[in-house]
Amino acid sequence: MRATIEHESRGRMRLRLRQKKMTLRQADLLEAWLKGQPWAREAVVHERTCCVILTYGGDRETVLSAIGSFTWAGAEETVTLPSHSTRALNREFQEKLVGKVLMKGVSTLFFPTPLRIARVVWHMIPFLSKGLRCLGRRRIKVELLDALSIGISAFRRDFGTAGTVMFLLEIGELLEDWTRKKSVADLAESLSLHVDRVWLKTPAGDVLTPIGQIRPGDQVVIRAGGVIPLDGVVAQGEATINQASLTGESVPVAKRPGSAVYAGTVVEEGECILDVKQASGQGRYDQIVEMIQRSEQMKSATEAKASNLADTLVPFTFAGSLLSFALTRNVTRALSVLMVDFSCALKLAMPLAVLSAMREAGREHITVKGGKFLEGVAKADTIVFDKTGTLTHACPRVAEVVPFNGKDEAEMLRLAACLEEHFPHSMANAVVEEARRRGLRHEERHATVEYLVAHGIASSVDGEQVRIGSAHFILEDEQCVIPEDEQAKFDALSPAFSQLYLAIDGVLSAVICISDPLREEAKDVLSALRGLGVKNAVMLTGDSPRTAAAIADQLGVDDFRAGVLPSDKADYVAALRREGHTVLMVGDGINDSPALSEADAGIAISDGAAIAREIADITIAADSLWELVRLRQLAMALLHRIQNNYRFVIGFNGALIGLGVAGVLPPATSAMLHNLSTLAVSLHSMSALPISKPDQRS
Prior knowledge:
Helix content: 40-55%
Largest sheet: 7 strands, antiparallel
């Protein structure tokens, strides 16, 4: 990419591309590419001026070299853009808004009176048509109020008032339409699959391949816990697919050879080889995101209350107008009441407030799928944590590998990594990373890999039965034995580490000891959450009761459960809700998915399993639990803003009605103040929420 540095300071530069113009797609591609670079902290692309504002970390020469090697063709291959472009949407909105304002100004200042009147009459037709349809259906709605106020004003030859009312109504409709479409675009981005690489099946074996290189006709391997990244057909294998992100149905569906599967769904059990039918970004998943966003389940109870109240108040506004005319015989006073309704402000400001909160959450690396879940976060009195990968570090490390039965330490680690690399769990990641650190290549030598949730992995390697997992799975379920002369060696294993047990043909062959320390911030985060009104903090873990008790004591949680299975977690969360608690569940693994679904709001750690991220209502970055505190603050601030908006709209518009009945405000002024207040409260709802950063103590 050819560009000139126009301004530069430490860690920040402004670049101007050496091209005359930039398309919206090019701007989206460049911005997405920049944000995907490891050194990029923030990147903003201005397509009108062909400028880039880049904030970065690390070596300046590395950044310049990467930018210099950028090509549009390369970006098209490596960057996956959502089908809904926020940039294009904003451009469309800006052009429409500017066009309406300019047209209104030109007609007011330069059009002769007859032409202005003709323009007003022409613009009246759609409003009057909507009002007549409401009347025909015997419904008193906002459209009928608008039609009456505009029609009566025109009948009284007050075309200025009629024109002003229609202009403000059109601006309001434009804002509402933009808000709805922006919500769809934000959801498309928040629900984007975030799958960078997939296992491509080749004659030479399975190869980890960037998703941008996958084409229709290729075959990819999807294993338990993995997200299906592309639309396709099952070629081999059988799997149980969770399609909740697509259909809303939480009951998994069995898929066999010949069955169609869709991007965004997740494999709960089994594995399959997929014949790809659609390239990235072209799948059915992208096509129905809008349908999901419009779902009523995404609305919070507070939003629903405001919407219902808005519809309920319309007949009362109409009745007030009729009563005012009946008592005063003054058309002007009746019109002043008719010009005011509660619906626009209530129905527009509330979604805008939610959208603003979701945007702010996104800037904090938090993805929220709807206002309903923010409300759940704000009202929660109980928070339940998974331990491994959630309260502990997301990147545990192998402390030591203890071989048994005469096995070689390096070979056992190699074998463990060969099996574990297919499954997205923090313990599995630790094994794979240690093998990589030691330079141990782990070629695919196994047959079909079976992942047993909350237990371990079973496979066949070179004709031998291999099992790896928990002590319960290896020693009890599989009844593997410890070599007789190595019992003392087994008993001497340090209880300070979490342990993975590897058995070959029913005999313990190695124990992999994994250091899994608690997050440094965990205790302070729990304290901060209590300060924000959370009454109970609970830890769920598969560890032994002795280990769990020690960890619970370090954290200061109110309660804990040890030795739990996935169903136990879900049952526990469900029981809390039946007792009347509002519950948040925080987890990262496949085994957390049922509990995430049961909670009022399920929160997944972004580095965890794909199924956990897809099922969860909220996803947070894994680098710090302080984001939970930030999320709670945002949610509480949102509810406070909605309640303030609610009081303001009711109070202000009620006052306008009162002043109109008293004859203090003429219809034009009443309409102007009403519509301006709607715009004002909407713009206020779009502003940043007034909250402070949490005190992040080390």
